[in-house]
Amino acid sequence: MAEENRSLAAEFILEGFSDHPKMKAALFVVFLLIYVITLLGNVGIIVLIQADPRLHTSMYFFLSSLSVVDICFSSVVAPRTLMNFLSEKRTISFTGCTGQTFFYIVFVTTECFLLAVMAYDRYVAICNPLLYSTIMTRRQCVQFVVGSYLGGILNAIIQMAFIVRLPFCGSNIINHFFCDVPPLLALSCASTYMNEMILFSLAGIIELTTVTTILVSYIFISCAILRIRSAAVVIPMLNPLIYSLRNQEVKGALSRVVERITVRV
Predict the structure, then answer these.
(1) If DSSP codes are grouped into helix, strand and coil, which group holds residue 190?
(2) Is the CATH number of domain 11-235 2.115.10.20?
(3) Which pLDDT tens digit goes with each residue over 31-59?
(4) Domain ranges of the chain
């Protein structure tokens, strides 16, 4: 019980990048600019899509959802990192660290699923344009987004359920600038074999599923585009054969022209 209490009450120290004052100041400016640009860019996309009714389509709905995830993902990591650049004490509580790790997993996983959904959306739009409005209804789009979030939350719950049970009775220095699963596992004074198996299994399943969906979707899209280009070149070439030489009147006219040329020769 004492060991469990010590692990729950522990504070961690985020090692960060550098302790040099000038380097910390420069990194603070760089991270702040990146964070502000990320926020402004994604907020701008959301506002633009909401303001223009012509952009109220499934593609832009997914794009605005992705922008929301990017804002949340950046806000999980950036504020704490910026505070650490300005503070000499770079500590974070056990609860704060596990909370940051939880939401980091949620939004990273959600973004992976959303990117796969967006690839599928483009596949349907290009390869099945006549069925696009039937397949990608507003309700279906909402279900895809909600499913992406649920997948991220489920992954985070499973990961954190095993992490919070680990004892942290050794070093409390996290070799990273924010809390993540691998740095936390490295600090545990108990076996992390099960955690590592779960981490790699879930990450492998998610990456395999999303990357395969993206690759297959864009392979079909590329094939569809190549077929369109080939048709644009080949069909005009075959039109005289299809629509003229199979016509009896055209055949008769062609034979008369050939006879005239033969007589003259």
Answers:
(1) coil
(2) no
(3) 999 999 999 999 999 999 899 888 888 98
(4) 11-235
